[in-house]
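hey so i finaly got around to running the thing on Putative Lipoprotein from Streptomyces viridochromogenes Tue57. pasting the sequence first so u can double check i didnt mess up the copy paste, my clipboard has been acting weird all day
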Amino acid sequence: MSTPPAPVPLLIACALGIEQFALRAGDSGGAGGPVTVLRTGMGPKAAERSVTRVLAGPGLGGAAVLATGFCAGLAPGMHPGDLVVAEETRDPGGTVACVGTDLLVKELARAVPGRTVHTGPLTGSDHVIRGQERSDLLSTGAIAVDMESAATLLSAVRAGERPVAAVRVVVDAPEHELVRIGTLRGGISAFRVLRSVLPAFYEWHRSLLLPRR
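ok and heres what it spat out for the 3d tokens, dont ask me to read them lol
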């Protein structure tokens, strides 16, 4: 009898300590293989360095990569605690198509019932977006912005062909701008949502990556 191939690992990348804490506080059961939660640090350069380093190391070379954490919503009507599933990520370095977005939307609706899930392009920035910049980015077709997802996924696919995705929780929106994450109701709402998304991530991982018969 041949030995079945080992499950492909999953790398979940986030930037902030509060995001990592939310993910570690979530449901850790049901993973389809080894899972690593990586705190990259804040900003695209930190994300690029961290993801490139980890994927070059032992055990994670072929990992699927999912970028997550908080984001700023760009479209009117978005609220803190809404979810964004990226169809693609964009930044000046390039555009990366995401895999399994329909599955993620379905599983997030199951994991976090009652929360609105938005799909569309997720754009990258090297600074916090406010005011007119938000409208300018919306005019490009993007629905949300953060500082690490695009750099994370671009670094991941440059390191080798693999499934990638990005799921973000809106903490800041046109009508709900925050000064500091976690100090206002919107930040707390987003934290609770992020703590609940792991089952959807694990289902994405299982469905896309486990060997099929």
